[in-house]
């Protein structure tokens, strides 16, 4: 829901979304940084996103009340409506053969693409109003600090991995990777051996490369 246009308005959007989640009794929450529609979040924007949650928790005290919207006829109606639509959609997935078939056939991606284009059309026609995009548009550009990565980050990481591989027990790593391969082939729980690999200094690439050797590389179906 974040927009590149008037990015500071995203702070308000995120606050309203966080409030709705808290009122709904969410078990965990993530608040987006206002600049995520433009770049990776800066330290400032990340801090502000976290502070949004803290203001709701400490100053509004929403969390002190269990089900603060309980009894609202409209919320109860919305809950029933969402539940009804969810069950109907699960039935549609079953009709196409289940979630695996839906993924393999590209059905899920067609549904996602259709939903995306439907919302895009609604915004373009003004049916759905988005501040700064199709209403209350400002010609003045808001300047925001853009996060920039360290240009030497890749080289630093390469040197770190090179040092790691020079200091670890590579024979043990190979033994564990071979065990992981056998576990994958038997379709057993991979987590115990993966945790042991990580503890011995294996890289995520080496673990994932083993997965690719056994199962191949998944490619998203092309949908129209």
TrEMBL record:
Q: Which keywords label this protein?
A: Coiled coil
Domain Methylmalonyl-CoA mutase alpha/beta chain catalytic residue range list: 1-217
Q: Which GO terms describe its molecular function?
A: cobalamin binding; intramolecular transferase activity
Stretches assigned to coiled coil: 154-190
Q: Which domain of life is it from?
A: Archaea
Q: Which InterPro entries match?
A: Cbl-dep_enz_cat, MeMalonylCoA_mutase_a/b_cat
- Identification of the protein by name: Methylmalonyl-CoA mutase
Biological source species: Candidatus Syntropharchaeum butanivorans
């Amino acid at each position: 829901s974040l927009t590149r246009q008037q990015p500071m308005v995203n702070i308000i959007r995120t606050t309203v979304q966080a409030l709705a989640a808290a009122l709904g009794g969410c078990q965990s929450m993530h608040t987006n940084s206002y600049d995520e529609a433009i770049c990776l979040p800066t330290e400032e924007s990340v801090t502000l996103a976290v502070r949004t949650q803290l203001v709701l928790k400490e100053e509004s005290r929403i969390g002190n009340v269990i089900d603060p919207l309980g009894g609202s006829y409209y919320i109860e109606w919305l809950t029933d409506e969402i539940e009804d639509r969810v069950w109907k959609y699960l039935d549609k997935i079953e009709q196409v053969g289940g979630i695996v078939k839906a993924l393999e056939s590209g059905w899920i991606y067609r549904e996602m693409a259709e939903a995306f284009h439907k919302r895009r059309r609604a915004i373009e026609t003004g049916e759905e109003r988005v501040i700064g995009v199709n209403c209350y548009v400002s010609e003045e550009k808001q300047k925001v600090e853009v996060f920039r990565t360290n240009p030497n980050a890749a080289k630093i990481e390469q040197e770190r991995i090179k040092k790691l591989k020079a200091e670890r027990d590579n024979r043990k790593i190979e033994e564990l990777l071979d065990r992981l391969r056998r576990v994958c082939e038997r379709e057993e729980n991979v987590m115990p051996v993966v945790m042991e690999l990580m503890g011995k200094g294996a890289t995520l690439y080496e673990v994932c490369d083993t997965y690719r050797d056994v199962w191949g590389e998944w490619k998203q179906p092309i949908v129209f």
